[in-house]
Amino acid sequence: METKHAVTLLASLAQEARLAIFRSLVQAGPDGLSAGTLSQALQIPNSTLSFHLKELNHAGMISARQESRFIYYSANYASMNALLAYLTENCCAGQAPCCPDLQCQPTQTKE
Amino acid sequence: METKHAVTLLASLAQEARLAIFRSLVQAGPDGLSAGTLSQALQIPNSTLSFHLKELNHAGMISARQESRFIYYSANYASMNALLAYLTENCCAGQAPCCPDLQCQPTQTKE
DNA sequence: GCTACATTTCGATATTTATGGAAATATAGC
DNA sequence: GCTATATTTCCATAAATATCGAAATGTAGC
After folding, report:
1. Which residue from A69, A72, A60, A67 is spatially nearest to A12, judged by alpha carbons?
2. Over the range A12-35, which residues count as b (16 or more CB within 10 Å of their CB) and which as e?
3. What is the pLDDT of residues A18-48, one digit of tens each?
4. What is the pTM of this model?
5. What gap in Å lies between CA A97 and CA A61, rounded to an integer?
């Protein structure tokens, strides 16, 4: 992953409303939730929510699909994984287990 | 973890220079690197670097320790783990394996 | 094509964040 | 306490981001 992309992904999550949106979608699973459902559940005005959904979608953190008059948003698990792997990449220069706290064991750098 | 703290942690990483700093520290391991070493390695002016180190430190993403005239900064692995766990918490409402892509298997919500 | 509903875009404003030179502060050896 | 070095604070400026009402756009059923 490129650094700039990682920054974009992180920035898309580094905002209270957007983090709440993303976590709701993570918990909702692959089917996701409609914009209206999110607006109601999180008590965010439509225009504000739309702005944040656009940020997350543009970053690639979530996906959108149209279904009837609704637009369903869902978490992009692949992006989340790539981000987590990037953050822990080459931890301690590969000298495991120097970071015993790490629950995740992402693969070493591949590119 | 509280939402606001998670946002602070994410925001501390959502900046190109800071992400580079953090990843350098992750790779350096528990001993960390001095401010001067980072400044030189990443080609960041001292004042700018100091600003970013403060941000990371204040967020709790890194730690600082004085040693002689140098200040060594190191990645806070516990914070990173907590953040990763928070992001994937209660994924798909616990209906594994609905998100087969997830490499990480963080514990379910505990609080 | 009219109506109803879902969602986004526009626009103006307020707030936060990033940058880096110069000056200030801290630490240590002599 | 003087000198050298490491790091931070101060400051002014520039740039990016968040908010949300009102208006516009899409979608579908009749």
Report:
1. A60
2. bbbbebbbbbbbbbbbbbeebbeb
3. 999 999 999 898 899 999 999 999 999 999 9
4. 0.86
5. 30
* Cross-strand bridge partners of residue A67: A70
Nucleotides of D under 7 A from a protein CB: 5-10, 17-23, 26-29
Instruction: Tell me whether residues A81 and B103 touch, CB distance under 8 A.
Output: yes
How many angstroms separate the CA atoms of A78 and A5, rounded? 14
The least confident of B44-58, B60-74, B85-99 is B85-99
C-alpha dihedral (B2, B8, B13, B17), degrees to nearest 10: -170
Reference A34, options A13, A3, A62; nearest CA is: A62
Write a three-state SS string for chain A.
CCHHHHHHHHHHHCCHHHHHHHHHHHHHCCCCEEHHHHHHHHCCCHHHHHHHHHHHHHHCCEEEEEECCEEEEEECHHHHHHHHHHHHCCHHHHCCCCCCCCCCCCCCCCC
Cα–Cα distance, A65 to A53 (Å, whole number): 12
Q: Minimal Cα–Cα distance from B109 to chain A, Å?
A: 11
Name which residue leads in pLDDT, A53 or A85: A53
| Chain A residues within an 8 Å CB radius of B3 | 16, 19-20
Are the CB atoms for A33 and A67 separated by under 8 Å?
Answer: no
Contact present, B39 and B24 (Cβ < 8 Å): no
Q: Which residue in the set B10, B29, B84 is minimally distant from A95, CB to CB?
A: B29
